[in-house]
Write a structure and sequence with these properties.
Alpha-Beta Plaits; 2 domains; binds iron/sulfur cluster
Length: 277
């Protein structure tokens, strides 16, 4: 079973849930797909055994063939190519690697070359198989790295995917194809606003989902009210607890020091299993 953990906004405790859940289960893979800011390793402290580069194809212009007709620049909807009177400028940081410009060039002046956009790190954290994507600094193309991480999915294991926060294409890439998505939120107006956006995305993708309310007690009851109205299951509620916060601040998953929570994560997993479509 593949479970994604997402959140409409950052800082809700999504990675805390992903790592504690992974530590509670057996035969688990944890995939950190929050490739812009991966931090599951801070809690799991894996031993990394392999690092794989991830590439996309970007255009390379042979100006000896180019007649500056501008067809490639006209075609590129990402404005990665700009045609001047006697110069073609390429902005690789805007290129989405669609492969279209070499096809439209009438002079065969464009070839493609590989550009590294990030890395995938593979290792182990105790019994957990750990895989993490890291996007290179300044690189805007997260999706190829996320897809490469997901290539490592082992169907014989329970897979937990830590997605990016928000509702961007990175989140869609991470949660797409998963059996169930857990949305982590906090009971505040901001938490509710972003939860609603995330719910809309999951409905469109047709992925079954439920909510974990983290730091209950810091805000109001409106998230609970919304979930009740919309028929969204609340899978688990984690109170605002000084001990949890203190353990978190030391980079330690709280089930390791508060073992009573392990049972709750096992119950959570059972609930999720019973709710998958
Ligand atoms: S389409 Fe080809 S020939 Fe025309 S400007 Fe672009 S690279 Fe040059
Ligand atoms: S590969 Fe696609 S996105 Fe990149 S420059 Fe060419 S047309 Fe634009």
């Amino acid at each position: 079973m593949i479970i994604s953990i997402a959140s409409g906004k950052g800082g809700t405790g999504k990675t805390t849930i992903a790592t504690n859940m992974a530590l509670s289960l057996k035969n688990v893979q944890l995939l950190d797909c929050d490739v812009e800011e991966p931090n599951a390793h801070i809690f799991l402290k894996p031993e990394i055994k392999q690092q794989i580069s991830v590439y996309t194809s970007v255009p390379k212009i042979d100006e000896t063939r180019c007649d500056y007709c501008g067809k490639c620049a006209e075609f590129c909807e990402f404005n990665a190519l700009v045609a001047l009177k006697n110069k073609i400028m390429v902005f690789l940081e805007l290129c989405h690697g669609c492969g279209g410009c070499p096809i439209v060039c009438p002079k065969n002046a464009i070839t493609e070359e590989d550009k590294e956009v990030g890395v995938v790190k593979k290792g182990v954290a105790g019994d957990i198989e750990f895989i993490c994507g890291e996007l290179n600094i300044g690189e805007p193309m997260a999706v190829p790295v996320i897809r490469r991480v997901k290539n490592e999915i082992d169907d014989d294991k329970t897979v937990i995917i830590d997605a990016s926060p928000g509702t961007s294409c990175s989140v869609v890439a991470a949660v797409h194809g998963t059996d169930y998505c857990i949305l982590v939120t906090e009971p505040t107006p901001f938490g509710l606003h972003d939860l609603k956006l995330a719910v809309e995305v999951l409905k469109k993708l047709g992925i079954p989902f439920g909510v974990i309310i983290n730091r209950e007690g810091i805000g109001d009851q409106n998230v609970q009210g919304y979930c009740k109205e919309e028929g969204v299951p609340i899978l688990l509620t984690i109170p605002m607890d000084r001990r949890i916060a203190e353990v978190y601040s030391r980079g330690v998953p709280f089930i390791l020091e508060m073992p009573e929570w392990k049972e709750k994560f096992l119950e959570l997993f059972d609930k999720v299993q019973s709710m998958r479509s």
